Amino acid sequence: MTVVESPPEVRSGDPNQFGYPSFELGEFTFSRDEYFVYIEWPTGHHIMSADAFLRALQRDVAWEFFYGIVNFDGVIGTVNHYGTVDLFAGRYNDSYRKAELDHVENFETPDIKATFQRMLDAWTNETFDPFAAPDETGTAFGPKNGDNRDAINRHRVAAKRMVSCPGDEELRSDEKGFPVNRAFADVPQDEPTIEAEEGFEEELNAFNLFAYLSRSDVTWNPSVVSACENSLFCPTTEEYILPIIHGNDRVEWFVQLSDEIHWEVEDRDSGGVRAKVVMRPGDVAAMPADIRHQGYAPKRAMLLVWENASEDLPGLIAKGEMRTYPVDI
Question: Which of 181, 157, 173 is nearest to 300 (CA)?
Answer without folding.
Answer: 181
